[in-house]
Amino acid sequence: MNQAMKIKTFELPHEHYLLKGDEYGTEPSENNTLILHGAGGSSRATFIRMREHLHAHGIQSVSFDFVGHGETGGNIQETTLRGRTEQAAAVIKYKCQEPLTLIGASMGAYSAVRLTERFAVKDLILLVPAVYTPRVYEVPFGPRFSVIIREQESWANSDAFAALASFSGNIIIIAAEFDEVIPMKLIDQLYGSARNAKTRTLHIVPDSEHLSLFPEERDFATAMELMLAVLKDRHGI
User: Fold this and answer.
1) pLDDT at position 5
2) Is the pLDDT of residue 2 over 50?
3) Where are the alpha helices (DSSP H) in the chain?
């Protein structure tokens, strides 16, 4: 589609923070795709290229900066995994239409999976997905959180696996071949858990790493083709 892209920023009060985000699109009432960034130095700005590519193919999107990141700012140690899920839920209620397409990266992928338990989600796209033990869901980000998640295979009893077992939409998992953060064993368990999905795809990007998922232009292009094959069908494009 050749429509000029309109970027409309928004601010959403949530608890004692002001969540800052934007919509990429032309018709706000048609926004059903939410992109959730990861931890560390990530923010919604990380996905500008992806969102521009989606919009060029007629797919609008919403994204925002979690507390402690990007323009939202604030003290990340004042929030938790539960807090991130609630922040995303607030943005969905404010800006998105169900059924949703959720695209989550790293820690954002865990929030996306948890949101399938609360909202109608048709498409779930997980990029280098992290999942966590329920023990840390309400533990503030900081030293104690880090100690727990660094325990050997602390993720093995994650509630994300049960959530995916109940998911009946389309799921795409895109993983890095040489991920120093997310073990392939976790990726395999995620994919296996999604046994009731309408469609499921696992794509391993060759010669890639957690923080460099698309080392070559062809890798980005392949990933976008996988996404668009599902999303274009959904949008009737």
Assistant:
1) 63
2) no
3) 48-56, 81-95, 107-115, 143-149, 160-165, 184-193, 217-235
What is the mean pLDDT of the segment spanning 132-149?
97
For residues 203 and 226, the answer to whether their CB atoms sit within 8 Å is: yes
What mean pLDDT comes out for the span 124-132? 98
Q: Tell me what the mean pLDDT of segment 71-96 comes to.
A: 96
- Cα distance between residue 65 and residue 19, in whole Å: 7
- The 10 Å Cβ neighbour count of residue 85 is 20
Using DSSP, state whether 121 is helix, strand or coil: strand
What are residue 66's phi and psi, to 5 degrees?
-60, 160
- Dihedral (CA of 132, 212, 112, 86) sign: positive
**Residue 16: burial class (beta carbons within 10 Å; 0-12, 13-18, 19+):** exposed
Share of the chain above pLDDT 70, in %: 94
Distance CA 210, CA 105 (A): 10
Kindly give, in sequence order, each residue whose CB lies less than 8 Å from that of residue 165, ignoring residues fewer than 6 positions away. Answer: 193, 194, 195, 196
Residue with the two structure tokens 């999604």: 194
pTM of the model: 0.94
Structure tokens of 151? Answer: 């325990």
Q: Is 183 left (phi over 0), alpha (psi -120 to 50) or beta?
A: beta
